[in-house]
Amino acid sequence: MSHGKLVGLVGNFSRPSKSYALVETVTELACDRYGLRSELYDLTDIGPSLGNARRYDDLDAAARRAAQDIISADVLVVGSPTYKGSYTGLFKHFLDLIDPLALQGKPVILTATGGGDRHALIVEHQLRPLFGFFMAHTLPSAIYAADRDFADYRLVSQPIRHRVEQAVAELGAFFPQTLRHSLAAE
């Protein structure tokens, strides 16, 4: 039984991508636990119209479809690689084209990746305030993973996997019926 839709948004063009792998890991766990269906987008999926778009209507059909999926999602998992201490510019530009009230009340799991520990606060100092502006519910546990936490674009760090599990468990507040059933089954 499906209880809703989770949309993942990754703020980069690179494929394969550690940021995509992290968002995908969170998405798979959340979908398994809560019976959600999912869709994942990165900036390549959103397409070339993004760079020239000055407003939502300037986006092409693929980009508008991604935006509508994000707006209509029950849960978001967002992630970005860290560039110069923040999320990517086109990731922010894409979100700038979405109505400020469109994400109000939506649960969001924040993720980010970077070369090392130096960028770990991106989730608290950059992503959390951004989604706070949209009045979304950012979950308390955010996930940051460094290059050393991956092998072949797969998350291999047990401490980071534990953090993923913790963040996904926090979604239970938004899906209490599913949580009760999964706890009863254990």
Automatic annotation (TrEMBL):
Annotated SUPFAM superfamilies: Flavoproteins
Keywords: Flavoprotein, FMN, Oxidoreductase
Pfam families: FMN_red
Residue ranges constituting the NADPH-dependent FMN reductase-like domain according to the UniProt record: 5-148
Species this chain originates from: Mesorhizobium kowhaii
Similarity remark: Belongs to the SsuE family.
Identification of the protein by name: FMN reductase
Domain of life of the organism encoding this protein: Bacteria
A GO MF label: oxidoreductase activity
